[in-house]
Structures are given as structure tokens and as C-alpha cells.
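dumping this here before i forget
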Amino acid sequence: MTRPRATAIGFIAVLLWALLALFTVGTAPAPPLLLNAICFSIGGVIGLVWTARSGGLKGLLYTNWRIYVFGTLGLFGYHALYFTALRLAPAAEAGLIAYLWPLLIVLFSGLLPGESLRTGHLLGALCGFAGAALIVGGGGTGFNADALPGYLIALACALTWSGYSVLSRRLGSAPTDTVAVFCIATAILSTLMHLAFEETVWPVGALGWGSALALGLGPVGLAFYVWDIGVKRGDIQLLGTASYAAPLLSTLVLVGVGIAEPSWMLAIATLLITGGAAIAARASFRSARASA
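structure:
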């Protein structure tokens, strides 16, 4: 598989993740760990069926257990934090902070062998963090202390996924089929923690269960498999900068369906966070040309 094709496949995940906040809101009032268990059960079963049909099940037995631990913690940690953040803070604002992960991927990827950081990457980072600061500060409406826990959890969410994505590059020899095991293990861990710490509240009606099914099939299912291909075989810096489309698309979807109210603060924060993409992407292209 060529590097450009792998990058394009990875970007499919970005399009799916643009619907993550919408479907998460639709599953309310289901608690985060229960939602994790439901969605990852769906995504894991799909992956195992696909792996079985392609004859890859035997190969899973020879994968180092450390890879399974790493993948499970990455998927479990990110989504437990994400679902919690969207329960504790406004969906659009918390989602934008969580979507700092593309920016962080670009920054962290500079630590990988053969990659480097340019001034444009740092300028893009400043724009992204300025947008996040605007959200936390509440823009012209003032600081919202009640939403602060949700915002901090959303930031931890961004750090978790960016760290997972960059470190996945160091595990390039692990087949993408292992993602199915990550999902199943995450579902089991989420179920156990749900039973220990949460009250069981199921999604409500056709909307709730439809949203949970959509999460398991797309943003918490197929997305992980195509993303794994992208970060391991594609251009990780280009993929990270292209991922800035996710917060913009996610915010537009939430505003479009009436979940989030349009406001100047939301618009400026979105432009700051996504606007850093143009600067960072340009730096990535220059770096690629210089190394060619």
C-alpha cells in the first residue's frame, strides 16, 4: 500500500469522528462506561468477523501482549474521557477542546525518528490553544466554573488520543486486525468498571439505541481500523493536520441539528482551532519537500 493511499484511508476516520459528538448526545442519559461497553462490543465483533473471514485470527495469537495492553488503554481511556466530558460540559465546546488532538499529534510526531517540527507547527499550536482558552474563558460571557471539570477532561482526552496515535507509529509491525482485540478488551473492561462505579441507565428509545448502534458501527468501529492504517503506513503529520477538519465539521453538525447554539465565541474558537491547520499543514508540506 502506498503512503498517499494509506493517508487517504486514515482520513475516513476523521469524517466519521465528525459525527461522534452528535451520536454521543443522542445516547443520553446512558453513563460513559456503559456507553463504552455497548459501542466497543459492536466495533469489536465487526472487527473479529472481518478478521475471521480474511483468515487473520491465527495471527492474533502471536501478537505481543504489550501491544494489546497499549491499544486497550488508548481506546478505553480516550472514549471514557470523551463521553464523560460531553456529559459534564456543553457538547460543542467540550468537543472542540477534545479535538485539540490533531494539533498535538503534529507536535508530538516531531519526536518520532525521521520527523521534525517547523515554526509553522508551533504557530498552529498557538492558534489551537488560543481557541481552547477562549472556550474555557467563556468568551464574552465570563468563566463557567460548572463546566470546568468537563473542559479539563476533554483536554485529557485530547492528550490521550494524540499520545496513542503517535506511539502507534512505533508499533507499525502490529497488524490492523489487532484493533478488534483492543475493542473487545475495552468493552470487557468498561463493563466491569460500569458494574462497579455506575448506575445502569440504558439509552432511551429508537433515538438512543440508534445513536449507540451508529457509534459502534462508525466513529467507535470502522474509524479505528482505517485510522490504524493511516497512522502506521501514511503521512502522520499530514494526517494530523488534515484532522483539523473534524472539529469544524463536528461543530457545524451540532449547530445544524440544533444541539449547539451558534455564537461568535463558538465561531471564533472553531476558526482558531481549525485555522491552525493551514499553518501547520503548510509546514508539513515544506518539510516533506525538503526531505524529498
